[in-house]
Give the backbone structure.
Amino acid sequence: MINSAMDSLLAARLQMAFSLGFHIIFAVIGMVMPVFMSASYWHYLKKKNPDALELTKLWMKGVAIFFAVGAVSGTLLSFELGLLWPEFMKHAGPIVGMPFSWEGTAFFLEAIALGIFLYGFERISPWKHWFASFMVGVAGVTSGIFVMAVNSWMNAPQGFDFENGVFKNIDPFAAMFNDAWFSQSHHMTIAAFTSVSAGVLGIHSFLYLLGRRKNLNLLAIKIAAPFFIISALLQPLSGDLAAKDVAKRQPIKFAAMESLFETTRSAPLVLGGIPNVENERVDYAIHIPKILSYLAHGDLNSEVKGLNDFPKEHWPPVAIVHVAFQIMVFCGSLLALAAVLALLTIIRKKSLASNPWLLKLFVLVSPLGIVAIEAGWTVTEVGRQPWIIYGFMKTKDALTNAPALQLTFYTYLFLYLFLMVVVCWLFYRLILVHFLKKDGP
């Protein structure tokens, strides 16, 4: 059993890491797949293409599965916040309760609209029925943005006065629309569309290459491709804005992302490498002169603060943050390259399906969006450590004093692994019924 406070903190953080890492997958799918479902149904209503109706119902079933599991995992997360971090909830609850409640409202609206859409075929007028699908997508994206408002507040806490360890004079609107809200919201929303559209393209490209239901899979590719191209090309621009924001508000996190130990003018960009924290250097890395200064402040000659400007007890785990950041950038760059190639194909007025190599590329890069999401979330959360509320409350001070945290860690781990098995089985059955047992044109 866990006895020491340090082991309790590790168990609690590991539990939250697994929980958030699991839930975020369903969160981004819940944001984006309803939009695809609505786009497919719109295509059916406009062109009366029966493949579009079948594709709509296929994606509808997927949305229902992921919505249900996402609701379960999200509910577990809400219990964990109160169970593991009571001091955080005690002080943060009155401040960020508004976006939490609005997220709950968006979730309920999404559930209602999804129910109407699931059971509304031939019961309500077609365009009212489509509007229900559209509202599922709007509520899903809105719900994600409200959640990001809470997380961004943890990185840029505002909307209160802090006196003698007490949060006073709370302004919930200032807290919600904090300095980090816009950069985190647009970066996460675009990342959600990039990752999910890449996954959709990969799955349907794979099935198309197998020769299964080619017309249906080609339609799915045509619907998903514009979302993928636009979001994957916007992602680097969004990332640049987000990086400049982090460099301004959380310079210690930015230094950890690049493993920059000494404050440097005309700082080089570090590609790859393994941080050697003990000797304060990055081994096996490629350094591109001056680029980091430009990325941080828009000036090749600007000064970038290094980790040594801050007390070591305030350093985040540098190696984890640096490697996660490099993985995120690498995956995002490959996805942007794939988007460029797809765009060039369309500009040349060629069908995406006319290039088997492009479909194979879609299959290869399809997991990278989720990998980038997980890596980026690691940068955001681990890079904020040792703070749970940046600059005001350390993670260890928010921890519960309840015993047996090891037991809750294993319990929640089992629950999430069980949910993962259930989802994989349901998803496999969904694909099996629609494709693997049925050859088509």
Notes: Residues 266 and 290 are 4 Å apart (CA to CA).
